[in-house]
Design a protein that fits this description.
homodimer; alpha/beta; 4 iron, 4 sulfur cluster binding (chains A, B); binds iron/sulfur cluster
């Protein structure tokens, strides 16, 4: 395989645990790709697309990525989470997933759902996370409908979930509309982190985020449209605050 | 259906969220049954079996339980968690699950795995939680092997998980042995709560439990036998402390 198969990689780290969503708590490695077609107001990984880390981007083939994973965690992982940015911009992610599967390693991936890739059908834990109004982004529902329809047609909905991050009541309304639109897709609500500075005190931050989580829980419990929802905080932020690379 | 179908019920409450295990975060109602064949040293629901709440036990039929659930949360749930004590002592739980299913409501249940019931095959989210050494209980592996074998034969492993609560390193060793023994069953590690007094300050308790969770995460990340594990705290305790009935 040549450099034509390469991916723009910003971070490779682990093992750590997945702090969010459908496989929360799972021991996993992280591969973070560069580039995003969105610019969410509260993006917690803006360095992947705002140019601030562009000198850190490395073009790596799937073999090189796997070799690096095995070097930093020899025999110590069976699950890799591909995050971004938006990894769905990258056709070659499909080759990385193939390579992981060939070693018996599972792959999880999160994307906002702005673009389809055929390799979505091969992701073991696919999280589609459309962005609510507070992000200042607009959802393209034609694309999102198409993604869900293709996953359903490919009999892959059981490996997928929808996740909406909620900062305020308008976001919660948006979340409800997403859940209503795709009632047969596993649905997760997640607390938005409104204090993303790396210098925030971790204990104070945890207590602040737990009270925000409690508020989201209250909204969910009061809302009959949310009976099938799962509502979760970001566990890694509760434990480690806003540090990168843990 | 007569009182012959009745179950000894100690608490019915909700909606709230499931704070633990395979459906963590799920909006759910709780039905807590009385009675346990164990007496774990750190049991957080000893009132179900130590006689202290025996005057609160009500003998309720599945119809009566469903009526009460609908009264306290009309149209506001689609999932019920049956907990104890050990609900696997009660043959009639199968009738309650049938009744819930007939209304389109899912059922989750947790048991320590000391006893089989045929209705295990009908539980949507079945958590088997064998007790580690710190509980001072002994696992009957003949029974546990049989339970897992029957779930496998019934093609129900995808609706089941194993969960081990860990207080110390001996418990972690026990957890590893359980995961090794049943490698094809979804496996969860959970932080043990060593401060179960109802008067503990919730914020201090959360910070204490998060540091214990971090320690369990560290052990899991360092251990190659745990690559497929999921490691989780008790979310409800982080939010609400040790209060009952939330
Ligand atoms: S989609 Fe994700 S990576 Fe892209 S800007 Fe939004 S939060 Fe950031
Ligand atoms: S098995 Fe559960 S309910 Fe029974 S004593 Fe142990 S912790 Fe308590």
């Amino acid at each position: 395989m040549t450099k034509q198969a390469a991916l723009p990689v910003l971070e490779i780290f682990g093992p750590t645990f997945q702090g969010e969503g459908m496989v929360i708590g799972r021991k996993t490695m992280f591969v973070r790709t560069a580039g995003c077609d969105y610019s969410c107001s509260w993006c917690d990984s803006a360095f992947t697309w705002d140019g601030s880390a562009k000198d850190d981007i490395r073009m790596l083939t799937p073999e090189e990525i796997l070799a690096e994973l095995e070097e930093i965690a020899p025999d110590n992982f069976s699950h890799v989470t591909i995050s971004g940015g938006n990894p769905a911009l990258l056709k070659n992610v499909g080759l990385l997933i193939e390579k992981l599967h060939s070693r018996g390693v599972e792959a999880a991936l999160e994307t906002q759902g702005s673009r389809w890739q055929d390799w979505f059908l091969t992701v073991d834990d696919l999280t589609i996370s459309p962005k609510p109004p507070s992000s200042l982004m607009n959802t393209n529902f034609a694309v999102l409908d198409d993604i869900v329809a293709r996953l359903r047609a490919g009999n892959r909905l059981s490996s997928a979930s929808l996740k909406v991050v909620v900062y305020d009541e308008a976001d919660f309304d948006y979340a409800r509309s997403i859940h209503r639109r795709y009632p047969d897709v596993a649905f997760y609500l997640q607390t938005g982190n409104d204090e993303t500075g790396e210098d925030a005190n971790t204990a104070n931050l945890a207590s602040h985020l737990l009270s925000r989580y409690e508020r989201l829980v209250d909204w969910t419990m009061a809302d009959k449209a949310m009976n099938k929802a799962r509502v979760l905080p970001q566990l890694h932020t509760l434990v480690w605050g806003n540090q990168r690379g843990v």
